[in-house]
Amino acid sequence: MKKSIVAAAVIAATGFSTAEAAEVFAEDAVIAVSGDEQTTQETSSTPFINDNEKAQTAEQDLSALPSEGSQVQDVVSTNSGPAEDQTITDLPSGNNKNETNLKDENEENKSEGSDQTDEVKENENVLLKNEESNLDDKTSIITELVVTETPKVQLNGWSSDKLSYFENGQALIGVKTVDGKLYNFGLDGKIIYGQNKVGEEAGRELWVCADKQTGVLFTGLTHLKKEYNPQGEKTVYYDKNGYMHFGQLTLDNKNYFFDQKTGAMAVNKIVAVTDDKSYYYGKDGTMQYGQHQVNNDWYCFDNQTGVMKTGIVNLDKSYQPDDPKVVYYNTSKSGKTPYGAMVYGMANVGKDLYYFKDGSGKMLTNGIAEVTVDGTKGKIYLGSDGKAITGEKETGPNQWRYFDKTTHLMVTGFKDLDKIKDKTDQNKTVYYDTKTGIMAYGQRQIGNDWYCFERGSGKMITGFFYLDKNYQPDDPKLVYYSPKQENRGAMLYGLQEINGK
User: Fold this and answer.
1) DSSP character for 84?
2) pTM above the 0.85 mark?
């Protein structure tokens, strides 16, 4: 009960002045509240007022005393406090019924003369005693009133059902720490169990999960079974505040990744964290380095950063101790071969064509590879840098071959070489062996006809030509090769008209 209401009751019940009532409460009444218990203690064993003070009060305020408790009833009638406070209406009246008569007698005696003085004094003493009795009774009731009217107890701690926690009478709401443990309290102040979204921060959802038995929020790496996540089991991470983590995370010098939407830890999975950076997380969820086979494809991840390698990569001894090699990891995000996977066979890298051996993926250099380009089977030749050669190329001592500038396929058979277009030392027609692709020199039977190609240049000979010992060691002779286009270069036999002869 507020002090102002108690003071009003004291003034009305006792006739004390405001200052006197305040003095009584300040010096003599102490209310102590602890938890759910309350006690009233007096600061000393002395009464509210001593005898002299009572007498002075009676003499000063005698005329202000309430009759039959009428003023107390008015105060109580405006009080909306608990029902137990209404006892103030039954204040005892003591000998109040005789007080009026005694007063009247005193007045009469005073008017009759001095011989009535003793009787007047006796009446005044009776009045004082009655007043003292009334003050004692009223003080006792006011003391009881102060004891009964106590402030509301401010609850601190757990509720009896252990579902809510109070601080200064208010139930906690949201994610809070109690006794060093995290809990998620709903808007009704009660613990929420299992997975729950508790808000958003910086555009990201905040999820927590409380143990279904204790209500304590999970923290650290946590494997959620279906009872907590009906969509399927997953391993997640809750930070020190109980919130689910999304994205990359380093724990004990090991790197992990948790799905940006579900929070599930990546396991045996390649994750594209950005457009140009992908990482591999193994069966224990930790980031992996070096070469790894994932879903039947081989990948390589930087030994320092873990970033997946793409394009042409030199696997030195730090990656391939027994057989260092140059390989190619796919740079395209479309097609049959997954992005970042090792490529086998022919591969276009920019404007250049390469070939990587089947099985090992090793880049082929200084060699021929059989390939199929646009549905056409053929051969390509890879130079010392691994690039497929186009045009005329000496591929060995006195071994010239020609490779198509569009398909890179090796050309065989007859070929008209343009001095400028094909970058040769002369315009000429040559012949490339159908099996080896090597340019032909000297006499060569092609089909049912014989031809001859200059030694050194490979140029096809037409017209009269003397086959000396360099061309015909056993039987040098003069022969004629047709210059006509339909059978150009073929050796002619029998009677022939040449230039009108």
Assistant:
1) G
2) no
